[in-house]
Amino acid sequence: MIFPLDKFKTLETPFYYYDLNVLKNTLEEIKSNVSGVPFKVHYAIKANANDRILSIIRESGLGVDCVSGGELNAAIKAGFDGSKIAFAGVGKTDKEISAGIDNDIFCFNVESLPEMQVINEIASNKGKTANVAIRINPNIDAHTHKYITTGLNENKFGINLPQLDDIVKATLAMPNVKLCGFHFHIGSQILEKEPFIMLCEKINELQDKYEKQGIEIKIINVGGGLGIDYNNPDSALIPDFKGYFDIFKQNLKLRHGQELHFELGRSVVAQCGSLITRVTYVKSGTAKKFIIVDAGMSDLIRPALYQAHHKIENITSAATDVDVYDVVGPICESSDCFGTDETLALTKRGDMIALRSAGAYGEIMASHYNCREFPQSVYSD
Ligand SMILES: *Cc1c(COP(=O)(O)O)cnc(C)c1O
């Protein structure tokens, strides 16, 4: 990625830099892989709800997937039509459900029987019928970090398979909800094909079973989870969407008239964003050298939260020599560390550092911890 260094040098750090061409090319690649098939993609807004990013995604024609009332508001404010909004989450409050019904959203992804009952009741009070999908927990191990795997029986999400019949039956008996779909989301940052193939097979089984019972399901929603290459962002700026969508084209047996929905977050926005920070000090310890930057876990929490690693680049050093450093933030937590034993160009105070692939779960997770200000956003245009 080419950074506009002349412009950067005049700016206060830290800030998120978004390359909008990367975003647009990513969206084009998604669109070209779902044209001609009944596939619909919702952007999982929790990955990044930045205004500019949202408006470009909306213009590209994607729908949106929300997991809270706040996200629902953000989606409406960004101009997404209710008919393109899916709403998931294990703990939707009455107020959030009410807002979803008022906006005539496309579908609630429902995660428990009590939630289904509450949606039915609130819809009934409003004299409406709410579209619902049951979020099914297919008990598939996504082989990802334990904090971002969601499809195992021990996870809090979704309905476990042994309980599915009962909730399907109960839902069909409720007058103010319409069962439109089955929803799945097995985890995030999934880099292997196997978990997605297993998901397709599980869905095929379920479809056979419910078809025999004469239960018609219009929408299959397989959630998100496609991973990105954090180690080599420049050679994989656009994730392998063809490989991803082909898995579903080849393994999932859609019925006539069915739509297959996706909820992609990370893979849409991660590579277009970088967190840009300045080196405040280079400090020599006994056995280590530390680069202390002016961004911290309050700006980008993924390393502290999930032991994630973002590629670190010194984007202003002219040195051809390298050294080995730990790159840390200023916050009073030992987990405020972006990388250990990083080989970087010789670095000095004032150099600018890019933490790459930070467009997803970066800015949106920023906090005021240590009374720090939120990072700014800067766009390539
Ligand atoms: C987080 C989430 C997504 C998006 O996941 P990514 O890994 O970012 O693609 C999709 N659907 C639901 C229900 C989610 O919670």
What would your notes on this structure say?
The two termini are 15 Å apart. Strand 8, helix 8 and strand 9 form a beta-alpha-beta unit. The longest helix has 19 residues. Helices cover 28% and strands 24% of the residues. The strands form two sheets. Strands 1, 11, 12, 13, 14, 15, 16 and 17 form an eight-stranded mixed beta sheet that branches. Strands 2-3-4-5-6-8-9-10 form an eight-stranded parallel beta barrel. The mean pLDDT is 96. With 381 residues, the protein is of the alpha/beta class. It has two domains: 119 residues, Lyase, Ornithine Decarboxylase, Chain A, domain 1 (Beta Barrel); 250 residues, Alanine racemase (TIM Barrel, Alpha-Beta Barrel), CATH 3.20.20.10. Helix 5 crosses helix 6. It is elongated. The structure holds pyridoxal-5'-phosphate (PLP). The site of pyridoxal-5'-phosphate has 17 residues, from strand 10 and helix 10.
Brief synopsis:
The chain is built from 11 helices and 17 strands. By secondary structure, it is an alpha/beta fold.
The CATH H-level superfamily of the largest domain is Alanine racemase
Count of discrete domains: 2
Rg (CA only): 22 Å
Gross morphology is elongated
What does the largest sheet look like?
8 strands, mixed
**Helix count?**
11
Give the secondary structure arrangement, pairings included.
Blueprint: H1 5-9, E1 15-18, H2 20-34, E2 39-44, H3 51-59, E3 63-66, H4 69-77, E4 85-87, H5 94-102, E5 107-110, H6 113-125, E6 130-137, E7 159-160, H7 164-172, E8 177-183, H8 194-212, E9 219-221, H9 241-251, E10 259-264, H10 266-269, E11 273-284, E12 289-293, H11 302-306, E13 312-314, E14 322-328, E15 337-345, E16 352-355, E17 376-379
Bound molecules: pyridoxal-5'-phosphate.
Residues 44, 46-47, 65, 67, 88, 185, 188, 223-226, 263-267 line the site of pyridoxal-5'-phosphate.
